[in-house]
Amino acid sequence: MTKTSMPTRAVICIWAATTLFLSFAAASWAGAEAPDLDFHAPPTADGPTTPAVMRDLAERLLPVYQEPDPDRYLASLSVLQMVAGDYAAADASRRELRNRRPHADLGQPVGRGVIYDIYSYAKTIEVENRVSFAQSLAKSFNEVVAPLNDHDSYVVTRWLGISAAVFRGALQRSLDQQRAKDIIDQTAALELLRTYLSYVAYRNFGPLVESLVAADERRRYTVDSEVVIKIPDGTSIVAVVVRPRSPSKPLPTLLEFTIDATQDDAMECAAHGYVGVVAYARGTRASPRRLVPFHRVGDAARAAISWIAKQPWSDGRVGMYGDGYGGFTAWSAAKRVPSALKAIATSAPNAPGIDVPMAGSVFHNSAYRWSLNMSTTEASSEEEDDDDDALWRVLDQNWYRSGRRYRDLGRLLGRPNPIFIRWLNHPSYDGFWRKLIPFREQFAHINIPVLTTTG
């Protein structure tokens, strides 16, 4: 029989002692009550006294913290240790937590606790190796994230990309709620410390994450950002194609045909093992395209589907998805189902002539603004439109007070909008609108799976 090495025996002894302690603690704490602690909340999340006040709270809670569930105990213990500044102990607690459930987590989605795994390990490396936090975070990120599958890596990197301002707001609200009190119980203290730790962690690694995520994505995916697809009317659309690097065989494709310039949805599709394609109805900033909303969208979408099915990385199967305008394009393509289109999934899809640009035969002034913005050659309008909200409110008020007919709305602005005028010429659900999406018996010819949600 091979003798167990001294390090291995030591690890076994530590593991046995920890397990025995946790079991004993669970039995002992089941009927005990954790004491309340004196606590005076600091005024602001970023105040000069806040770190010391929160560290003091963590240090006072550590020796009296009670929790009968071993997993919850280790998770919360690591939070207390990090806020107290003992990152090596926190990292050990996080590792023990992971070691307790290696099989229970098999095949399960990654949990948000992995953020604490990355942060505690990075801070431990920073302190023990006396390196910059940027260096220690890179090492921690690569050791924790690189072994994850594409889906879990995508989830974790999107969590890491959340703005620290979100956590700062949550911390400030928690401090404001606590300020009128002089004591805090264990549950509230743990929640406050966890909120504080989240803010500190995101504030520290936020500026460094983008480059790490970009490098991880380059290792996992092939990204073509400016693919030009010809469509039947003689023009073209621009698409982004994201493919997993690992598969050696053709894959099914998920297509979104949208007006919003983002490749994140295509990346998420690739993370699930598909080829992700996002076709931009308005092009991109580099290749802008003038758009007539809803016009010939079905033909363009079917052209994109046909192009996808012919590519060497495609197995010939395409699914479409989208919400709002993107949901409309999926239904528009399905009006005459191309052979390569195998399913559609839509959420709150636009139904032109029914819910846009009017509802209940009443036109919306916002449709004038939206159609005018969509018909420009700018690739993205959402952020640019925010600055002129006041202008549009004044236009609405001026038109209302002028007593002029509705068709003169654009004359008051000095910017003609023939698209909106054309819509006004069709106030009922006539042939102008019916040709855009399936109508009546045409639904009977849609012989593919459909998931649609609205509300």
Word description of this protein:
With 455 residues, the protein is of the alpha/beta class. It folds into three domains: 18-218, no CATH class; 231-352 and 436-453, Rossmann fold; 358-434, no CATH class. It has 18 helices and eleven strands. The chain has helices at 6-29, 50-61, 70-83, 87-100, 113-129, 133-145, 150-160, 164-178, 186-220, 264-271, 297-309, 325-334, 365-374, 382-385, 389-402, 409-413, 418-424, 431-434; strands spanning 37-38, 183-184, 221-230, 236-244, 251-258, 275-280, 314-324, 341-349, 358-359, 362-363, 450-453. A seven-stranded mixed beta sheet has the order 3-4-6-5-7-8-11. The chain has a two-stranded antiparallel ribbon with strand order 1-2. Strands 9-10 form a two-stranded antiparallel ribbon. A hairpin with a 2-residue loop joins strand 9 (358-359) and strand 10 (362-363). Helix 3 (70-83) packs across helix 9 (186-220), helix 8 runs antiparallel to helix 9 and helix 11 (297-309) packs across helix 12. The protein is globular and about 75 Å long. The relative contact order is 0.07. Mean pLDDT is 87; it is low at 1-31 and 379-384.
Gyration radius over CA: 29 Å
Oligomer: single chain
Binned, the helix content reads 40-55%
Q: Between the first and last Cα atoms, what is the distance in angstroms?
A: 68 Å
- DSSP helix count? 18
Count of folded domains: 3
* Average of pLDDT: 87
N-to-C SSE string, H for helix and E for strand: HEHHHHHHHEHEEEHEHEHEEEHHHHHHE
- Biggest sheet architecture: 7 strands, mixed
Read across the widest sheet, the strand sequence of neighbours is: 3-4-6-5-7-8-11
The count of β-strands is 11
**Approximate strand percentage:** 5-15%
Low-confidence stretches: 1-31, 379-384
Overall, the morphology is globular
